């Protein structure tokens, strides 16, 4: 099969090469998927997992890429829940060869059925942004119907997923971004929009959840908008703790929660 591999971390994306590799075999609880679309971000080449396995053994040359959509071609021993020729999408293990290849062996638990009316390229674009938005809103933000959400970057990869998921959950969504993003954010389900270049962020009033993808001064100012007991979820790291403590909120960062009372 054809695959893109990397051999030297210092080479960056310039070191990515198209080569011939053996087709992978399905291990226990694996499936093999013929990849129709995949996702890759250049920062993967700085992640230790791209270069070593879980025992920290060198695994280069490795195949990068983690998001994928495709069709199941074979099942490993003990695999359940999926079938051959089934359309799927999902997120590959960080420590195994990835999705920039014609085929990938992947644990079945890391895949989900892809509906027939969803294009493969759309399916491959969902896993990282979708999981980030879902976990932030519901696991960390504890969002409930009737609450209000300030979704920064509402027209971006993560922000657009936050906006749509919050709307479907019955929340009142206030999107933010640049002026050119207004209509896109409203189309995704935002009820209001804040132009961060021209509007006063503080005019939003109090909200229950802020989903921050920007950080810096915007994050600090957003903390002051949260109702007592509300939550600031950020994917770019915490701001100054003192500013957050004054709001009586909790700060959640990725999979960690930081009490600020």
From TrEMBL:
This is NADPH:quinone reductase-like Zn-dependent oxidoreductase. Residues 12-260 form the Enoyl reductase (ER) domain. InterPro entries: ADH-like_C, ADH-like_N, ER, GroES-like_sf, NAD(P)-bd_dom_sf, YIM1/Zinc_Alcohol_DH_Fams. One of its GO terms (molecular function) is oxidoreductase activity. SUPFAM superfamilies: GroES-like, NAD(P)-binding Rossmann-fold domains.
């Amino acid at each position: 099969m054809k695959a893109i591999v990397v051999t030297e971390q210092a080479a960056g994306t310039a070191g990515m090469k198209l080569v011939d590799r053996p087709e992978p075999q399905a291990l226990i609880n694996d499936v093999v998927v013929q990849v129709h679309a995949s996702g890759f971000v250049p920062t993967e080449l700085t992640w230790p997992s791209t270069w070593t396995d879980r025992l920290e053994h060198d695994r280069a040359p490795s195949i990068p890429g983690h998001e994928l959509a495709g069709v199941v071609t074979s099942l490993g021993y003990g695999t359940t829940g999926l079938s051959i020729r089934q359309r799927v999408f999902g997120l590959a293990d960080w420590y195994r060869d990835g999705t920039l290849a014609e085929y990938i062996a992947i644990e079945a638990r890391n895949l989900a059925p892809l509906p027939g009316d969803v294009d493969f390229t759309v399916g491959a674009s969902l896993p990282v942004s979708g999981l980030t938005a879902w976990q932030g809103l519901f696991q960390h933000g504890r969002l409930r119907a009737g609450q209000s959400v300030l979704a920064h970057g509402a027209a971006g990869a993560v922000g657009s997923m936050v906006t749509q998921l919050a709307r479907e959950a019955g929340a009142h969504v206030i999107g933010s971004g640049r002026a050119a993003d207004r209509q896109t954010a409203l189309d995704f389900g935002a009820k209001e929009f804040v132009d961060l270049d021209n509007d006063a962020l503080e005019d939003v009033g109090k909200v229950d959840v802020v989903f921050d993808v920007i950080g810096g001064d915007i994050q600090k100012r957003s903390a002051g908008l949260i109702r007592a007991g509300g939550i600031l979820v950020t994917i770019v790291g915490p701001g100054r703790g003192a500013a957050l403590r004054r709001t009586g909120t909790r700060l959640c960062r990725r999979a960690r929660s930081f009490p600020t009372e």
